């Protein structure tokens, strides 16, 4: 099949004849599907996660159970307030004395933003109850109270140590 070329494009005919296969392969590669799936960006969690009260109680139970004379203990903690993050804020004062406060955010790329935490405030405990077989021995009670107080920051008037029934 011989297609007549317009007179001004005869120079292009020679170049197409020489580089035709290269152009064809280039066009195929440009149109070739990559087969890769788009990755969804999952926002990374902050370094501090929510306070795990049950995990904390379990760890404290295992530790108290290792105190000499305490035996197999059970610990119940109550919270005054949970842990929270203090976020960075920007305050601007207007010309008429009015102020506006905005939370500072940092761009993480692809349109997502994260807040800037300044600090994480630890949870405040309200009280603790420890039930163990050695709860009636004064030395064990003192050791358990000191251990719970050291970990939770509670005073001895907010910690109750009792002897278990079994």
Describe it:
With 166 residues, the protein is of the alpha+beta class. It contains 3 helices and 9 strands; from the N terminus they run H-H-E-E-E-E-E-E-E-E-H-E. The chain has helices spanning 10-31, 53-65, 138-152; strands at 74-81, 84-87, 89-93, 99-103, 105-107, 113-115, 117-121, 124-132, 159-163. Strands 1-8-9 form a 3-stranded mixed sheet, covered by helices on one side. A two-stranded antiparallel ribbon has the order 2-7. The radius of gyration is 35 Å and the shape is elongated. The protein starts with 9 loop residues before the first helix and ends with a strand.
Spatial strand sequence of the major β-sheet? 1-8-9
What's the total count of β strands? 9
Question: What does the average pLDDT come to?
Answer: 77
Gross CATH architecture of the domain at 50-85 and 118-166: 2-Layer Sandwich
Distance between the termini: 101 Å
Order of helices and strands: HHEEEEEEEEHE
The backbone outline, from C-alpha atoms, is elongated
Keywords:
single chain, 166 residues, GMP Synthetase, Chain A, domain 3, 3-stranded mixed sheet, 30% helix
Task: Give a brief rundown of this model.
With 166 residues, the protein is an alpha+beta fold.
Write the layout of secondary structure elements.
Blueprint: H1 10-31, H2 53-65, E1 74-81, E2 84-87, E3 89-93, E4 99-103, E5 105-107, E6 113-115, E7 117-121, E8 124-132, H3 138-152, E9 159-163
Parallel strand pairs: 8-9
Antiparallel strand pairs: 1-8, 2-7, 3-4, 5-6
